[in-house]
Design brief:
Number of strands: 14
Strand content: 5-15%
Distance between the termini: 84 Å
CATH architecture of the largest domain: 3-Layer(aba) Sandwich
């Protein structure tokens, strides 16, 4: 082997950062050397090629897939048995991660790969994704044989609200919306409890989740009964998709029969909706599917390659099957509902009810904590103008734009303007690097995750809340919960011109709108707030008043109450608790 090849691979080990290796040698040189290794040392080829593909994946996914196909064609039969097939396995894993199910399935059908636990699990997942994609009636495929049940008592309707995740193990807007809706429905007299997807919470540990120590399948949190189905053997990580949906359906059928459930109301996404609809049909009870967003659009916003993948089309198919199969369809807002109802691909033209986000007035509409005390508790100067952000720290929220706006304001203005970011997420390290690069460490404070009952103190310290969402497709569909909390706390909001946020401000007032993705427009909006403190207070009070009148959870759930009464005409709830 030439010395150049030897030098290239001197630092070849799994810990070598891909950018260091490729910066030192260049992608083209490494590709050439891989082929030299194939010619001169075929026994080493599979192992080195696999490591190269892992590194290349970090750099450029599209290039990695193309290179994997090229190297797979070179893979020698002379490789040691324990290395043989490593390149093909890596290629399969790449195609699976990119959602290219058809290509992956074809590769499986035309390949001979040594059996292993890893390859068998991957093959099952790919095969079942293909089966779901080709399935003409997913609900019928999932539905077990019709079950015989005891008659439901007219004076004892029981409802299961079926969610993807929930308190106390996941503390985000989705979980709080679930808890708030169910609490409000209980106040209206409905006997309702929350159930979660099969496997939760043991299948995934997410930021903001509580520890799983002493996990109990039945818990009561704030007066609401929660039913979990934790399983180390049956969950999203252990079962391929069709097997998971079937297992989840059977578990729901058991729960419905054991607890004499009269109606099942499932929330996003289809992982919940499909088993709920199939189980309801098997048990002869009505079902509701509530779309809170478009999870496939969220993923496509982050991953452009996913938009053109088989996985994207499958996710769309599963969503429309859940929506079309349910007896009633509910949407979190008009953009989401219209996406289902207007698109013929979704297979449903049924009218939908809109159930927007609401607010817990008892928590956020109390008189704010003393401003000076809140500032002192958070170690913030009393005279600073504090811009707040509360929510997930993810790419589409546009927090990088907000940090850049702060830098511009620091140059243009003499006031002490600061930024407080309350929340956590994947892009926090990146944002912290931007703050350091712009020398804004003394002006930007990352608080991290804060429990819901502590948020009031942070809101009390803020002058304005900014929600600078990017103009991504997901942001044009989904309404976040956090602006309502800020408005209920009497704080004015500055929001980008994505449709859901624009609609909030135009409906309730209480805010300023700037052109999405426009740094100059955001700076202008913040400067307006700085220049008009009295106007800012008026805007904030207008929003607070509107929240009391329009967005209490007790009012928000009225359409759900109507749907329940429509689906259960012979099962009326008791008198509302007043």
């Amino acid at each position: 082997m030439t010395s150049s090849v030897e030098e290239t691979w001197l630092d070849l080990n799994p810990e070598t950062p891909v950018r260091d290796l490729l910066k030192r040698h260049g992608v083209k040189q490494v590709q050439i050397n891989i082929r030299q290794i194939y010619a001169l040392q075929p026994a080493r080829f599979e192992l080195l090629a696999q490591r190269f593909l892992l590194w290349l994946w970090e750099l450029d996914q599209r290039m990695a897939v193309e290179e994997a196909a090229a190297l797979d064609a070179l893979s020698p039969n002379s490789s040691p048995a324990h290395y043989r097939g490593m390149v093909r396995l890596e290629r399969l894993k790449m195609l699976d991660r990119l959602g290219q199910t058809s290509q992956a399935n074809n590769l499986l059908c035309t390949s001979t790969i040594s059996n292993s636990r890893q390859i068998n699990k991957l093959a099952a997942r790919i095969s079942e994704c293909q089966e779901l994609a080709e399935c003409p009636d997913i609900i019928a495929t999932l539905q077990p044989s019709t079950r015989r049940r005891e008659p439901i008592r007219a004076d004892d309707p029981r409802i299961l609200y079926f969610a993807h995740h929930a308190l106390p193990y996941h503390n985000n807007g989705y979980a709080h919306r679930t808890a708030s809706i169910v609490a409000a429905l209980k106040r209206r007299g409905w006997d309702i409890r929350i159930g979660t997807r099969l496997g939760f919470p043991v299948d995934r540990q997410l930021p903001g989740e509580n520890p799983r120590d002493n996990l109990q399948a039945r818990q009561t949190v704030d007066g609401i009964e929660y039913a979990f189905s934790p399983s180390n053997l049956q969950n999203l990580n252990t079962l391929p998709p069709l097997s998971y949906l079937r297992a989840a359906t059977l578990r729901l059928v058991e729960f419905i029969e054991q607890n004499r459930i009269s109606l099942i109301h499932a929330a996003s996404n289809a992982i919940c909706g499909l088993p709920a609809v199939a189980a309801a049909r098997a048990c002869g009870i009505p079902s509701i599917y509530e779309a809170r967003g478009a999870w496939e659009v969220t993923r496509a916003s982050r991953d452009p390659m996913y938009k053109n993948s088989d996985a994207y089309q499958l996710d769309l198919k599963l969503e429309r099957a859940a929506a079309a199969g349910a007896d009633r369809f509910i949407a979190i807002n008009n953009p989401v509902g219209e996406r289902y109802a207007a698109d013929p691909k979704f297979g449903t033209s049924q009218p939908f009810q809109t159930v927007p986000n609401g607010i817990d007035l008892e928590v956020f509409s109390k008189e704010k904590l003393d401003f000076a005390d809140a500032r002192a508790n958070l170690n913030l100067p009393l005279d600073a103008f504090l811009i707040g952000y509360v929510g997930s720290v993810v790419d589409y929220e546009g927090l990088d734009l907000l940090i850049e706006a702060l830098r511009e304001i620091r140059v243009q203005r003499t006031e002490d303007v600061r930024l407080l970011i309350v929340g956590d997420g994947l892009v926090r390290p990146l944002l912290e690097n931007i703050v350091r690069h712009l020398n804004l460490e003394d002006l930007v404070n990352f608080v991290g995750h804060v429990n819901q009952n502590k948020l009031a103190e942070y809101y009390a310290a803020m002058n304005v809340v900014c929600i600078p969402r990017r103009g991504w497709p997901v942001c044009e569909l989904v309404t976040p919960l956090k602006p309502f909390e800020a408005l209920a706390a009497g704080l004015p909001i500055i929001v980008s011109s994505v449709k859901p946020l624009e609609d909030v401000v135009r409906e309730v007032g209480g805010g300023l709108i700037f052109e999405k993705d426009n740094l100059a427009a955001l700076v202008k909006a913040i400067c307006f707030a700085l220049n008009n403190p009295n106007r800012l207070k008026t805007i904030g009070m207008k929003g607070k008043t509107a929240m009391k009148q329009l967005r209490s959870w007790d009012d928000v759930v009225l359409p759900i109450d109507d749907v329940y009464n429509e689906l259960l005409p012979y099962l009326q709830p008791g008198a509302p608790q007043i």
